[in-house]
Amino acid sequence: MGGYSSEYRISINSGNVVYKNLDRTKYEPYRVHILQHSWFVVADDDTPYPINKSNFTVKINDKIIIFDCVFNTIHGTPGENGLLQAYLNLVGIPQTSCDFYQAALTFNKRDLISVLKPYDIKTAVNYFVNKGDEIEVEEIIEKVGLPCFVKANKAGSSFGITKVKLAEDLEQATKIAFKEDDEIIIESFLDGTEVSVGVITYKGEILALPVTEIVSENEFFDYEAKYLGKSQEITPARISDEQTEEVQELAKKIYAKLKMRGFTRSEFIFHNNEAHFIEMNTTPGLSEASILPQQAAKAGISLKDLFGSAIESAL
Description:
Elements: H1 8-21, E1 31-35, E2 38-42, E3 48-52, E4 57-60, E5 63-66, H2 83-91, H3 100-107, H4 109-116, E6 126-130, H5 137-144, E7 148-152, E8 162-164, H6 170-178, E9 183-188, E10 192-202, E11 205-208, E12 212-216, H7 223-227, E13 231-234, H8 241-257, E14 263-271, E15 274-281, H9 291-298, H10 303-314
Antiparallel strand pairs: 1-2, 2-3, 3-4, 4-5, 6-9, 7-8, 7-9, 10-11, 10-12, 10-14, 12-13, 14-15
Helix pairs in contact: 2-3
């Protein structure tokens, strides 16, 4: 839990929920904080014990602890963009999220959209800008229209996102996004019902969870809406059975085509009554308030079973 990005506190919440709900008759869990300047195990009395990065072990009371599996709850870098997955692969420790290539691909919104295009996955109209590029306001608006969304290409929890309604506000929005990443993506506004679909490998099968409808009190599903109660998350979503089946099958198709593992949560907007893909999270929030645990509960899956299944699958 933790990480190097703006999302590290959210990740620690997720990690603590997993730690609390793991079956102690099967597992002996340790809380590992992966932070920018230090990696350490936090004991129940809050004593930190440093991780040996050469082999991902820890020494506690003169005993070397060798881990069987890592439950990855890091949002953002290095747990959601492939760096941690690649490191753990090198030291030979299984982990619960997808492999390093899939993590790097899905964390990069631009590259993910490009890979999904041949599979007829509908998305918003996109315009990409790298740091240092000229911001061609007229050209951008001609392609994506107004309003539009300006996003950091590689960031989560809605950090670095602005909804732009006026041409004169576009350049300022790019500056906000560039604080989070050196690449940005500008997307056309999709008007319609926003939904979130959890897809997991559960007891060896790819399973789409009940669909959640997102109703934000703000302009869009931003940080406040996600984490500070400024939204309604309605599970199951108030959409037709046909739409539910369509978006669940679409989410499962993306999961399968990308050869995903572990938990994912994909966002869609029903624009002109068709599901348009927005993005995929490969280490979705797992706190009590998070969407995926809500969906699992509706599917009759307890947190103990949900988290245990992820470990069994990784092992």
